[in-house]
Design brief:
With 394 residues, the chain is an alpha/beta fold. The chain has 2 domains: 139 residues, Aspartate Aminotransferase, domain 1 (Alpha-Beta Complex), CATH 3.90.1150.10; 243 residues, Type I PLP-dependent aspartate aminotransferase-like (Major domain) (Aspartate Aminotransferase, domain 2, 3-Layer(aba) Sandwich). It is 41% helix and 14% strand. It is built from 13 helices and 15 strands. The strands form 4 sheets. The chain has a 7-stranded mixed beta sheet, sandwiched between helices. Strands 11-12-15-14 form a 4-stranded antiparallel beta sheet. Strands 1-13 form a two-stranded parallel ribbon. Strand 14 and strand 15 form a beta hairpin. Helix 4 runs parallel beside helix 10 and helix 5 packs across helix 9. The relative contact order is 0.17. It binds pyridoxal-5'-phosphate. The site of pyridoxal-5'-phosphate has 13 residues, from helix 5.
């Protein structure tokens, strides 16, 4: 199936946030925003075509088939039985889901614990609900030729023991730390949350993008009846590249949490979804496994390409070990320029766009979106290396 991923369409002029916000006429290679340059899986395209052919696009009723598709996905792929009490609460995206859940479970002034570096919208969702971010920075662990991150459990316990911190918002798997958290790590986090009376919120949007040799542990699969005490956010939008169709699910079996979240979803007016998101989710979850497995293989090859290219062209940079997501994390702290300036410099002078690490709460890094054709990735990385090499010679 590699040819499906080698042949990426030209996205310029398609209303793409990633491509069309670059300076006009500048031929910038965008390796920033987290969507993929690949066409959706053929099964999704067929489902959408059929829906378009119907020709009527009124308000959407979400059918039983939708809930069954989510249930099957979780049981077939991850061995998690959601059961009849756990009907997902659908909404327009994971960020709206996070925001409404924070609103539901906190009061202004409360603390929300997060582990930085982390997805930037965590910060805005916390801020927009009048809460304070309580950081539990991840600990960097260096290997001989890469690095990774671990949870500081001592600090986590201290932070969660504070009664002004009612929730912990986790990214599982973690963007941009590239971690597919191990079952033991997640169990320890969950047990700590139970012990301290903290509600664990798990953003699992990247759960389906797992590199060979690693596995995804949904929080719902832990010991200790997690469905009744946690909230999971999930969506096919990252793995199947349908973010523009705006569909996501909130999963918990707790009647109290469901009630509060449902109310907040309605207060925030994000309780309606569109017919294309529904059709695409059903197709993806019922028939998308094979395509997804090929995709993750392709992403992993792109990651290996990046690692080799760094070793060859700039060995003093370091690449975080990629266990999950299609977002690589590159340590550029040896370059003598703050990463936000670096982002602008590379965009302006070398026509490649990467995200500065500061956006995620950690300066000295660049985030590289690997979800594009190998050819385009190679060209983008060449531009990046040219820019960084020129800086080193100054
Ligand atoms: C961890 C994480 N959560 C949520 C989102 C966005 O979710 P949505 O587009 O469904 O609001 C992203 C996008 O990159 C992400 O990385």
């Amino acid at each position: 199936m590699n040819e499906l991923f080698d042949l990426t369409p030209d996205r310029r002029g398609s209303g793409s946030y990633k491509w069309d916000t670059a300076r006009e006429g500048q031929d910038i290679i965008p390796l920033w925003v987290a969507d993929m340059d690949f066409k959706a899986a053929p099964v999704i395209m067929d489902a959408l075509r059929a829906r378009v052919e119907h020709g009527v696009f009124g308000y959407t009723y979400v059918p039983d088939e939708y809930y069954r598709a989510v249930e099957h996905w979780y049981s077939r792929r991850y061995g998690v039985a959601l059961g009849p009490d756990v009907r997902p609460i659908y909404t327009q995206g994971v960020v709206p889901a996070i925001s409404a859940t924070i609103k539901a479970l906190t009061r202004p002034g409360d603390g929300v614990a997060v582990m930085t570096p982390v997805y930037n919208c965590f910060f805005s969702s916390i801020r927009n609900n009048g809460c304070m971010m309580v950081d539990v920075p991840l600990v960097r662990v260096d290997g001989s030729d890469d690095f990774t991150y671990e949870i500081d459990f001592e600090l986590l316990e201290a932070r969660l023991s504070d009664e002004r911190v009612p929730v912990l918002l986790m990214c599982n798997p973690h963007n941009p730390a590239c971690r597919a958290w191990r079952r033991e790590e997640l169990q320890r986090v969950y047990d700590l949350c139970r012990h301290t009376g903290t509600t664990l919120l798990s953003d699992e949007i990247h759960g389906d993008i797992i590199m060979p040799g690693y596995s995804f542990t949904p929080v719902a699969s832990l010991d200790g009846n997690p469905l009744a005490h946690t909230v999971t956010f999930s969506s096919p939008s990252k793995a199947f590249n349908i973010a523009g169709l705006q569909i996501a699910n909130i999963i918990t079996s707790s009647p109290r949490l469901r009630y509060l979240i449902d109310r907040a979803i309605n207060d925030n007016e994000v309780c309606d979804v569109n017919p294309f998101g529904v059709a695409a989710l059903i197709a993806a979850y019922n028939h998308g496994s094979e395509w997804l497995d090929s995709l993750t293989g392709y992403i992993h090859d792109n990651y290996r390409y990046l690692v080799k290219a760094v070793a060859h062209r700039m060995p003093r940079l370091k690449v975080a070990r990629l266990e999950a997501t299609y977002l690589a994390w590159l340590d550029v702290s040896s370059i003598d320029m703050p990463d936000e300036e670096l982002e602008e410099y590379l965009k302006e002078h070398y026509r490649v766009w990467l995200n500065a690490g500061s956006m995620y709460g950690r300066g000295g890094f660049l985030r590289v979106n690997l979800a594009t054709s190998r050819r385009r990735l190679a060209e983008g990385l060449d531009r990046m290396f040219d820019g960084l090499t020129a800086l080193s010679k100054r």
